[in-house]
Amino acid sequence: xxxxxxxxxxxxxxxxxxxxxxxxxxxxxxxxxxxxxxxxxxxxxxxxxxxxxxxxxxxxxxxxxxxxxxxxxxxxxxxxxxxxxxxxxxxxxxxxxxxxxxxxxxxxxxxxxxxxxxxxxxxxxxxxxxxxxxxxxxxxxxxxxxxxxxxxxxxxxxxxxxxxxxxxxxxxxxxxxxxxxxxxxxxxxxxxxxxxxxxxxxxxxxxxxxxxxxxxxxxxxxxxxxxxxxxxxxxxxxxxxxxxxxxxxxxxxxxxxxxxxxxxxxxxxxxxxxxxxxxxxxxxxxxxxxxxxxxxxxxxxx
Amino acid sequence: xxxxxxxxxxxxxxxxxxxxxxxxxxxxxxxxxxxxxxxxxxxxxxxxxxxxxxxxxxxxxxxxxxxxxxxxxxxxxxxxxxxxxxxxxxxxxxxxxxxxxxxxxxxxxxxxxxxxxxxxxxxxxxxxxxxxxxxxxxxxxxxxxxxxxxxxxxxxxxxxxxxxxxxxxxxxxxxxxxxxxxxxxxxxxxxxxxxxxxxxxxxxxxxxxxxxxxxxxxxxxxxxxxxxxxxxxxxxxxxxxxxxxxxxxxxxxxxxxxxxxxxxxxxxxxxxxxxxxxxxxxxxxxxxxxxxxxxxxxxxxxxxxxxxxxxxxxxxxxxxxxxxxxxxxxxxxxxxxxxxxxxxxxxxxxxxxxxxxxxxxxxxxxxxxxxxxxxxxx
Lengths: 302, 378
Prior knowledge:
The structure holds two protein chains of two kinds. Chain A is mainly alpha-helical. Helix content of chain A is about 70%, strand content about 5%. Chain A has a two-stranded antiparallel ribbon with strand order 1-2. In chain A, strand 1 and strand 2 (about 140-145) form a beta hairpin. The termini of chain A are far apart. Chain B is mainly α. Chain B is built from 16 helices and six strands. The termini of chain B are close together. In chain B, helix 3 (about 45-70) packs antiparallel against helix 12, helix 4 (about 80-95) packs antiparallel against helix 5 and helix 9 (about 185-205) packs antiparallel against helix 12. Classes of the chains: A mainly alpha, B mainly alpha. At the A-B interface, helix 4, helix 10 and helix 12 of A face helix 7, helix 13 and helix 15 of B.
């Protein structure tokens, strides 16, 4: 699909790799937020990606809201779903929530997929996003408007997230909960608030990731988006399970690795090699550095 | 039941014996007779298909139960081990014509070897890490088998026709006296005989030294290590046995459905096994069989009664309205997983025990005035 010859081919692959990696990073951020604050690997995050994309579609195309407002409405709805699920399901699992939480969120993901297809059907839907596939030439490298939108929106989300995480009182509470849950709660930080907020933020981040994934060429809003969401999981391993910065870096590395594999892998590696590339990178890293590039060792021991 | 064990933690003593008391021994005898008697006397194709697929899934779930229930390792890579078994059987039994007595053990061996390779990863990777790596196994497996065309037939899949003769018995067509039995009847005998062997294997592993080591690792790794349990040994053993059983399940699955494609061994197959294991009851001998029988019933029932279930589409839907049988089953599996983990994490087996205790207690109250033994904890 991509002509990979010479320097311009390399740059072209790099640009699409960064766009893909930014999305992986965005999805990974949602996993990391919940994992760091509650210790649960929330597989339902794939469901947030799926649900978010469909809610944006619904708000924009069915209710006729302008696109930016539709995104806000969808993000708010998805956040509400996240807060509700945390309060009604995950919190009730009690103290042994780590593994049970993982299985419960897997169950929730498998409930979400058929519900979404029951409401919106199996067909690919056109999101009606404002970013056309017009290309802008920068020297030999061609950028689509959509790539630029993806990269700039993800950068803005990350900047906003890190500002909140660093400077707001809630962000400090969440970081405290992430670094030592017991100690933070003993200091009067409310676990309910922290976890509720984490799930809500995951819903918002998932919605954004879902709608951007749905704008990919030949993509559209479709039931497979949940699986695409799970493809970001190797990125969080690369970055370390509890590190938001790691999510970004891990996502970018995986996106680049996948695009370079798509461009340069020899034919004998067969079909679909680029899609398993992130898992191969992940396995290699795990053998060398089990707690990821940015993670703390404690996560592994817990 | 065992009143003598009132003082001891019941589970340890219970774990050491193969069968407790006469009733269990009788039940085991009945089960062994039923393996042959039920399929050969059941002629309804619908119920036989349920019996067959539930048996195939039970074998894999028994393996998953050893890994997750006894050794405490959560994996969603089970589908990968099934595909290893299925394609080993297809390569050796189908392409090279090996007999049943060779291709089935060879599948088990292949699963065990792959389990032995994956197992050591569990030593370094816990909880979420292990789950993500196991997810990677599933996607890598699909990639490998899609491209390994000589065995798998590529993405389009391959028809499966394996030799099923064992000594004088042909499991395509069992013949007793002058009576010929159908393929689904004959296969059910083979499948449930394998279930019995799998149950025996896991029951024996669980009560052996290495099985108790697995349970110690599950409950507290640090404490287990301190009393001399090798974490590596226990985890790898769990992966080896569970991998072998999953592979056998995959080989039988290919035999039963007679057509497999690499995509069939995707994440949803793994989720299915997780659901069977949790709903049936983790760390309980009969839990997997119960889970596979009860939960495995769902897609078949939905398929049969599609017209009378709301939101389910009967045939292949092009309009995109309503759920397919597969989608409805996903909904049911996911829902059951959530409901059971929230309300009865010990599964159907625990529900059954609770019901039995309730019945016993009420009948006690009616017949005698003897007071309840206090140990109502198990």
